[in-house]
Design a protein that fits this description.
335 residues; alpha/beta; D-Maltodextrin-Binding Protein, domain 2; 8-stranded mixed β-sheet; two-stranded parallel sheet; 43% helix; 23% strand
């Protein structure tokens, strides 16, 4: 009798343990693999996940297309990759990366905190077909700046006809490049810097995160420059299959990500500061306004096409105009 009771107790403990600690495979994209800052962030998150009832197994990828392929094939219960590619699973969160929508790190931090706030919980859950996906976190990668192989490309007019590497799956990039008169060259996130360094393209947009590891300075040589004007804020989304994680997991995870933001932005600012001053080139005030107008027109067009989320565009405009009230767009409607 006592032996039977012990066996039942052991079984009950095992069942309870399995319920409390779900197993989940999470596919993580980082250009630098396990040595990258994005992967390290998700390693910390995986440790914290044990407190929310999940044992996470991380799978590192340096090819973002492969992450999406394996997620669709059911090999991952969740993924962490750039919002540009993750936007298909949640347009609201993915629209933080709207071209020209987030011009400073301060606005970026406020925007990410807003999106992950519990008031937006319903917007972060999306059903596609028979599956329900949830945004469980957003990580900051950094503002993307334009790098040119020749510093004579110092105005919009001089970008005309130049080859500009764009990520083939992000329609927004193609729109921006076409609007400035440059020639979009379809690329993957795994090879767009390589094309710049090997002179296959004249221009590329990338965050400071990529500068040293991907050796952008090789493409810059002695004649190149970084245009000191952010064109897009790059983030990464953690998307989970809701039914593979315990109830309430997403909310706890998002709260954890918000707490990491100060550290993440400190890292981004450090990386930006490490880019040598000799490469930095400022646009004239006139060209800055021209860029802002082109990016604004592009955002409005892409929102009408359903690529960006209208609510998010309104939020981002309010954030920009809170910081810079005299900006020309603040008196205009449309966003």
């Amino acid at each position: 009798m006592k032996k039977g009771f012990l066996i039942l107790s052991a079984l009950a403990t095992l069942i309870t343990s399995n319920i409390l600690h779900a197993k989940a495979d999470v596919c993580v994209f980082d250009l630098l693999g396990k040595s990258g800052e994005s992967y390290k962030l998700i390693e910390e998150w995986a440790l914290a996940s044990k407190n929310w009832g999940t044992d996470v197994n991380l799978i590192a990828y340096q090819d973002e297309a492969k992450v999406e392929q394996d997620f669709k094939a059911g090999k991952c219960d969740a993924f962490y990759m750039t919002s540009m590619r993750a936007r298909a699973y949640n347009k609201f969160a993915g629209s933080i990366d709207a071209i020209g929508g987030v011009p400073t790190n301060d606005i970026a931090q406020k925007s990410i905190s807003y999106v992950l706030d519990k008031r937006n919980e319903k917007r972060l859950i999306n059903t596609m077909g028979k599956e329900t996906f949830e945004v469980a976190g957003i990580g900051q990668i950094g503002s993307a700046y334009i790098f040119v192989r020749d510093k004579s490309i110092n105005s919009l007019a001089r970008a005309e006809g130049k080859k500009f590497a764009v990520l083939h799956y992000d329609y927004a990039q193609k729109i921006m490049v076409t609007r400035i008169g440059a020639v979009p060259v379809m690329s993957e996130i795994s090879n767009f810097i390589k094309k710049f360094n090997q002179a296959e393209v004249d221009i590329v947009a990338a965050p400071a995160y990529a500068f040293k590891p991907l050796e952008i300075y090789k493409g810059l040589g002695t004649q190149g420059a970084m245009i000191n004007f952010p064109v897009v804020n790059v983030t990464a989304d953690l998307i989970i299959r809701k039914n593979k994680f315990p109830e309430g997991f997403g909310m706890q995870s998002r709260s954890w990500f918000v707490k990491q933001l100060p550290k993440s932005f400190a890292m981004v600012k450090r990386m930006e500061a490490e880019i040598p001053a000799k490469y930095r080139m400022n646009l004239s005030k006139e060209d800055q306004v021209k860029y802002q107008k082109i990016l604004r027109e592009g955002r409005i067009d892409l929102t009408k096409q359903g690529i960006y989320d209208q609510t998010m565009m309104t939020v981002l405009k309010k954030a920009r105009c809170t910081v810079e009230r005299t900006n020309f767009e603040c008196s205009l409607s449309g966003e």
